[in-house]
Design goal:
heterodimer; A: about 400 residues; alpha+beta; D-Maltodextrin-Binding Protein, domain 2; 2 domains; five-stranded mixed β-sheet; three-stranded antiparallel β-sheet; 10 strands; B: about 575 residues; mainly alpha; MetI-like fold; membrane (chain B); transmembrane helix (chain B); cell membrane (chain B); Putative thiamine transport system permease protein (chain B); MetI-like (chain B)
Amino acid sequence: MNRMISTAAAIALTASAGFAQTVDPSDWDAVLAEAKGQTVYWNAWGGDQRINDFIASVGAQMEAEYGVSLEHVKLSDTANAVTRVLSEKAAGQDQGGAIDLIWINGANFAAMKENELLFGPFAEQLPNWQYVDVEGKPAVINDFTNPTEGLESPWAMAQLVFEYDTARLSEPPRSVAALAEWAANNPGRFTYPQPPDYLGTTFLKQVLYGVIEDPSVLQMPVEAVDYDVTVAPLWDYLDGLTPNLWRSGAAYPQNEPRLGQLVADGEIDISFAFNPGRASAAIANFELPDTVRTFVFDQGTIGNASFVAIPYNAANQAGALVLANLLIDPEVQARAQDPAVLGFQTVLNMDALPTEDRARFDALELGVATLSPADLGSALLEPHASWMTRIQQDWITRYGVGQ
Amino acid sequence: MNRGRPLRFAPLLTILLLIGPVGAGVLGTLAPAFGYLPALGGVSVTLDPWRDLMAWQGLWPAAWLSISTGIGATVISLIISTLIVAAWQGTRVFAFVMRALSPLLSVPHAAAAFGLAFLIAPSGWISRALSPHITGWERPPDILITQDPMGLSMMAALVVKEVPFLLLMTMAALGQTDSLRMRMSAQVLGYGRVWGWLLAVFPRVYPQIRLPIYAVLAYSMSVVDVALILGPTRPPTLSVQVLTWMSDPDLSLRFQAAAGAVLQLGLVLAALFAWRSAERVVARLGCGIAMRGHRGAGGDAASRGVALSLAMICAGAVLFGLGALTVWSFAGLWQFPDLLPQQLSLRVWMAQSGNLAAATKDTVIIGVAATGIALLLVIACLEAEYRHGLRTSGRALLLLYIPLIVPQVAFLPGLSIFAILTGVDGGIAAVIMAHAVFVLPYVFLSLADPWRAWDQRLGLAAQTLGAGAERVLWGVRLPMLLRPVLTAAAVGFAVSVGQYLPTLLIGAGRIETLTTEAVALASGGNRRLIGMYALLQMVTPLAAFTVAILVPSLIYRNRRGLSVSV
């Protein structure tokens, strides 16, 4: 045992002595040269087959164009990748880490940034960064109000949209208040994923936007405001809504896909997703009937961006940079926005694109259930990440443990 | 030189294989439970994680859920499997029941749970079959069936999976007891079939299946995947909550998670202790009842009916569930209350064929290698014990148990740090070794009792005829024990196929097996893909069990004394 410990210590010492950030993102030719022949391990949630297929197609393209191959490490939870990097740091493995790129945002990013587990800054040195719509989509550099500081690069925009079946419901409720009223008249036909699930907590934040007097306080950390008074209307609202939820709030679906399954099974009438193109894609995949449509609240719905980040000890940093750049390539972005592929909204600025690339976006069909950008309206900004944490905790105390 | 000498070191080697990773894993759990995790800034020993844990209001309900569902599932599984053997052993019906139930063993827990969920949910297959004609439901009713607060649906999924396991373990043990003649003697004395079996045979079988029962108890108490699919959520079971904290982006919750994991470990140990005490009470009560000489002949017909129905319900729940998932994998749009999908398509299968082949190959390679290592070490240990008169101490046995009773979520991140430290992580070899840690205990538990119960006079007889120790092993003992050896190997292989967290964490996410693919997809709840992977996850170990059942029957078709009457 003693010998094992000293061996481990020796490895840790050598590792930390040799630690250095070797790749310079601003010297792109050197990046390309070093990346050639590398295999990039991209840790990304693997729960959606269409996303997995899209990632595979990006991998094939990267192999063909840059000689860099891609392995998609399919996660059931992004935090597993964070744990992995953390374990490597705990073991003193400061280079040659197993993860090259992580699909990340929000609290996971905040945790990695705070614990200095990230490579960079690199995002603004990527050649395709010139097309990113920093002005029109401030969320691409503000991750839950946390400045990204070039430590992560955006690759998709998401916005909360509600889904309903026109065959069962003619006019959906278009505000937080109308939703509660509709639920009271149709008990058991609405629910949300149980916080701390990401989508479930987003729903709580959406309600918060609808019930508090001055939503601008949400951009500040909770410590800066009178939290209890500010959120009191949220708990009042939920106390009224809960008895009318699916299973009277005695059980909740765990995540977005399980919520989608409930609407597909006809157990609930209104569901929601963070991808405006999900419903159209699900219809195309025979998961939902073609009578399903989407809508947003009149006051707008919360939107944010998905990012990729590179761990500080990634073994193939150059390859990871090539992949991050390829993900914001106009042609790849147009493919991701195609509802037949993913239906993800682009992070790029149409006005900045060359004509031929713009034409790719113009040629896209919206998909039968997808709202046009005009109908989607402007997205509400994500509240400061501290709201998410506090509301989650309080929700669990109030609704999450009562038998 | 004594040729048997290297065997002396087999137990040591085995213990090292377990103690290294398990020790590191447990340390990696204990240290943060008391505040020590330098990577997260925890450098002093403190009780804060425990205070945080106690401050969570859901703690006692969650702990109680783990206890009640774990013990409940174990007791019910044991009763059902015992009743089936007692009522039907030696009949054609029994052979039929065994054939119906043994494939269930190879169905991964998660797949069985998903299948069951789709059967019993208000929008599930049973409800669809009865709607709208009988129930009048045009829409699924708003009834709480799955995720019920008491965890009954979750217990049901555990029971249908554990009954086949205990049944197979019982059968392996029966090969070493003179069960048929004992039962017949009891019947000649006027005892009923079931009652006679319980009084005469069960006391001899129980010590041999005690360890598998403990494994079932520990597993049921700390199971994660089944609890995620069918268990309650407000609060969930303790192990699910530990996993939730473990995967929370707020890294400071890791401390609390570690404390929860230690508590989970304590609960499992306490439950095992309580079970052991209950064994003595039941044994004393049983003796008292036996002394009264009541023959219990009247209850046979009823017991047989009940046993057969329960067996069929278990088999039906899993097979129909799996059938439903299979239909899903070919389904187009499939809405309530349609009994079958509107269209069928091969789309999912076509799109996945490449992934499936690659994942199946890795699954088989890892499973065969891990099982091979485990089997070799276990046989070497048992043989060393026999030849050198070594005794497996209670402490060594506890080590064997640690991989089975420490919740995987708590033990594996520690193991993963250990793997990175030694630089062995990320490759298929490391994954095989990690699997061996989990496979070995099951192989040992499956094989130890039949091995020790082997009639040593046969070895003595062979030695008198001039055979050396090696020849006794290879020429007499192993052939005679072929059935339990293959059964143990099949159990080990199935355990390996089902491993998720070790594959993910030790393989650095780079090794893809059917299970890692299936669980990643299961988090997305896509029944079509889950159905496809579940089917393959079942077929792979099923092949191993088929070998375990068929080969001995073929080889010993003309050896009556070696065939267990099925």
